[in-house]
Amino acid sequence: MKTITITTEFIKLQDLLKFANLVETGGMAKECVQCGEVLVNGEVCTMRGKKIRPGDVVSFEGQELTVTYAD
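Above: the chain sequence. Below: its structure as tokens.
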């Protein structure tokens, strides 16, 4: 599982996919989320603006991500 460090309260799902370099563009992230290709905490999530906070697990194309706050 890959951990992404954020400096804000949350990161939007589509932004996380782009920030983690799992997609090349924001448009690709939007499409992947809306097509149901992304899981959040084990469930399909089609809300690209879903707020991802520490403790959430995002799965996409066989990879898992979680976020943590910067110290």
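The chain has a mean pLDDT of 95.
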